[in-house]
What does this fold into?
Amino acid sequence: MLYCGLDFGTTNTKAVLLDESMRLGGTVSLPIGPQEDSCRLSASIWLEHFYRIIEHFQNAGLIKNEKVALSIAAQGGSFVILDRQFEPISPAYLWTGSSRKETVADLERTFGMDRFYKKTGWEPKGWMPVCKLKDWLAACDDEKKHVSAVTTVPDFIVSRLTGRPVTDITHAQMTGMFDIHTRKWDREILGWCGCELDWMPQVLDSLQVFAEVKVRGVDVSLITSSHDQYAAMRAAGVDAVGEFMLGTGTAWVLNGKSDQPLYDEKHFSIHPGCDLVGNDYGYIATMGAVGQGYDRLLDRLGVSYEGLAGMEAEMTTMPVPRYAIEMDISSGSVSEETKSPLLSMRRYMESAGAQVRFLLEKLDKIHDAKKIVMTGGAASSGIWPAIVAGICNIPVEAVTFHEMTAYGAAVYARMAMGGETSSYNASEDQILRFEPFRVDEYNAWYQTRQRPILERKNENDR
It folds into this structure.
């Protein structure tokens, strides 16, 4: 038996193939390519990538006569509307796009911010499928009679392979139309949207084999799919309270597990959801576009990523700040920017590290913390993971394996087939471990200088 995990992102599709011993057999990455509209694309690209990945592993001699257990992870909030032949009758709407502001305002007015948040795990937002679907139905009334399904990325592919759309609970709860407490599609929200219950896919809330298909001559067992953040947590080995994954892409998010849904009823920065394993819950705690802000800072300073590694070595000798750091992630600016490029970059990193600690305190998890697994761009830094470890006083594992999410999907496939769970096990150059350093100095700076600033911003942000 082989285990295949696919990760459909906004800019590329990645996949891994593992053998029975969970050894990495091969990887592949396919770019989405430029689109006329960065917030929409043709859903046929998703299906094309699916077939190309299977063909790639076949042509490489990695799939011969073996059966493949396959699970799909994907971006949450992207969807496409299908007709009775499961052909798209709408563009594939990506989560990066937004609905009309009036639609979001109507959703909030109808259900109330707090009630909707408690029910779905998210406050009303324009990226949500529920809002964009309402807009589409209002604008395309003639097409409504042809609708048979509203599908996210995995269920679109599944519908084309099996003739029935099947999704998972971690994707369903990203649509804004799913109640995370009843674990069912919410009829009241569907009614507001103008969506029929019959259009919504079957929702699986546990790992299982739900279909057997042939793909390009390969016998494939289709396994419950997953939202990309949950698959990445699985790969990172985030299995219990006290373990966290810090995703450091364009936006930074802190993910973890809990035995009950966690909420931030004042600022809506914590987004709870059901997990696929056991009866546990996961959460996605958002920090904003920290990575994008850092890119803007580097651009303004004229620093390239190629030259960054050598400069970071010089940063290690810089002292811990003695003053509060004002950071604006929208512009990528820090209060020390005028003094030196090196100091600006270091202070930006420290300000971001303080935000991680502040979020852990908001979650009331700082004292339970055992480790933070850092993934994404900042994990490749030689100093940023160490700074986070020092400020939070928590060991950090920085993982630079780019197919982590696809790996997590493959682990889900193995678990569904009765195998043991496992986290990503790579060579030492792909997992770097950072122990907390300068803990007393960082704690004094955080408590007396930086935390008061974060508290003030927190009070003003709602």
